[in-house]
Amino acid sequence: MKMVFRWFGDDNDTVTLQQIKQIPGVEGIAWALHDEIAGDEWPMDKILDVKKKADQAGLHIHVVESVNIHEDIKLGLPTRDKYIENYKKTIAKLAQVGVKVICYNFMPIFDWLRTDLYREASDGSTALFYEKNRINNLDPFELVDQINANSDFTMPGWEPERLQHLTSLFNAYRGVTSEDLWDHAKYFLDEIIPFAAEHDIKMAIHPDDPPWPIFGLPRIITSQEHIRRFLDLHDSPYNGLTLCSGSLGANPDNDVIAMVHEFAERIPFAHIRNVRVFENGDFIETSHRTQDGTVNITGIVQAYHENDFTGYCRPDHGRHIWDEQCRPGYGLYDRALGIMYLWGLWDAYQQASSYQGKKV
Ligand code: CS2
Ligand code: MN
């Protein structure tokens, strides 16, 4: 298991590369050019700038999260070919600087969705929270205004330039069904996966967060069955999965341990984090510890270990603790604690298997 840490760049993150380097066992960053608009070809000078900074800090840049997909590709519009060409050009450039994995998602309009960025727990910490009933009754425009008013950062998936076109985006999706989305995903994969394979870059689809349709928009990467279908759309080791335990864990019907076992060969990137799901369907992000949420993190790490997982892993989100002022979900402290929990579990399984004479 190779540990990485998400980094949003010099101007867009409170966490520094040096701090990241000081977390035990972290060898690289999961990064992106966050000011590039989905569909545009990434400029080489900006890619090299990130590489230079990471090199200086002693961290690698093997994992990109995310190269976002233009809505026209998800909508299956004729203009998609132009954006797919740009995507390929970006892949070719990333291959040149040693990138191995590209994480991306296929969610219409919105990326992750929460109703509250700073929900306070009884211990005074705050965390991302999702109130199911409120979403069911909420006008998406209101939510976009609230999210952007409450964050000092540009948040991936919530870029103001993109969301100012919200009305036309909603109109464009009118009548687009989940089966259409499957067709459009297949078209994308058939174009991109052979190209990525030639460049030895594994594409790693991130599940939908939360894993169910929102605001009448279809969502398809939501369950074990759907992930199987997605991986079968184009059967290649380069059509891979970012298995995010927190996104999928928001639906208690999802058995993430079973997914690790079934898809192990196709997981170049693991996101490991916990959530607590309540009876009414609300959920809050918690510490990584198994007992603190409803996702069995211990069992998940065990499953990765049993499958001799050699892919990249990151702690995904964290709470905001010890008065840290940071991007919502992306503070230093709780994610660093999460990493130490993951290493603790991993090393214990490693030790136990070596004791039993198994290969370590
Ligand atoms: C991430 C997602 O910050 C987050 O919630 O887990 O934004 C993730 O990076 C994307 O969905 C992957 O494309
Ligand atoms: Mn994730």
From TrEMBL:
It is an enzyme of class 4 (lyase). Belongs to the mannonate dehydratase family. The keyword Hydrolase does not apply. Pathway: Carbohydrate metabolism; pentose and glucuronate interconversion. The keyword Manganese applies. Its cofactor is Fe(2+); Mn(2+). Catalyzes the dehydration of D-mannonate. Gene3D superfamilies: Divalent-metal-dependent TIM barrel enzymes. Keywords: Iron, Lyase, Manganese. One of its GO terms (biological process) is D-glucuronate catabolic process. It catalyses: D-mannonate = 2-dehydro-3-deoxy-D-gluconate + H2O. This is Mannonate dehydratase. Its EC number is 4.2.1.8. InterPro entries: Man_deHydtase, Xyl_isomerase-like_sf. PANTHER family: MANNONATE DEHYDRATASE. The gene is uxuA. GO terms for molecular function: ferrous iron binding; manganese ion binding; mannonate dehydratase activity.
